[in-house]
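Notes from the 1:1 (GR / supervisor)

We went over the backlog. Supervisor wanted to see one worked example end to end before approving the batch request, so GR pasted a single chain during the call. The sequence is below; no edits were made to it. Supervisor asked that the structure be written out right there so they could see what the output format looks like.
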Amino acid sequence: MFNILKSKIKNFTNYSNQNGRNKLKAKSFAVVFLILILPAAALLIIAEFADKNSLAMYVCLHFSFCIALCMPIANWLENWMVNSELEKMNSFCVKLKQGKLNHRLDLYSNNIGAATDELSRLQQNLNWLAHSVAKRESKFTESLAKTRRDKERLNLLSYTDHLTGLFNKRFFELKLVEACSKCMSCNTQLHLMLIDCDHFKEVNDIYGHQEGDRVLAELGQIINLSVRTGTDFPFRFGGDEFGAILVGVDSTRCEKIAERIRTRFAQIKLGKASLSIGISRLCCNATDPEIEAESLVKSADKALYFAKNTGRDKVISPARYKEISKNM
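Structure output shown during the call:
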């Protein structure tokens, strides 16, 4: 009897070791075999010393009953053990769906044989999937950040004059309406300054276009250094025409800024080059930002050409324009 049981256990163990795919079921079957069948076998041994007829029949029935239940119980244990792992994997997949890509599964450990079973391979594949998705998401995030930086850089280039570094006419047309709208809603003062370089054509003709470009670049730097970064907006219309949108400063302060720009440019002393500057002010009763923006440009342009027609190299503010007009 012992030899038979020993051979059965040996064959069963060899079967378990040779089939990596059925390791989970083999472990369950081994547990049931040890719990149910071995006690029955022990009873058969005891039967040698008891009433053989009744005890042997009972033991045989018990032994048969245990064998009949062995595989169903093994299958039940298999389903219970596998389902617990599947629940973990399902929870893992839900976390992946929620974007928790740093989570990893603990691999199912199996001590029967060295081969990896299907459950462990599935968990390894899920971990590798999470790793791959996390890596691709990281690359995508870096690519998206680079794209945004490139977009911001291209937007800045599209709104910037390449020679002076100031904003260009396109930006001015967009920003003036926006600034008018904000200042009207906040009851904040706004001034528009238009600047024209006098006798610039003569500078180009006498000193050359390279020298003319240098003068324009220096003028752009003077204007940029004379206004507040982030609050005021200096720009270049094109050619020798410049300007600035001044937010939150009164007329006296605006006129001082314009005079500082004019006097600093006069220090360059290149031919007859000088600056004529016209200033306009946002109307306190304005209601339409677009209409007011057009009015600001017209008024500043009118003051600018008034400065050029009355001797050049001067600043004409709204108050000074009225004063000179009355005397003329």
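Supervisor's comment: The longest strand covers residues 190-198.
Batch request approved.
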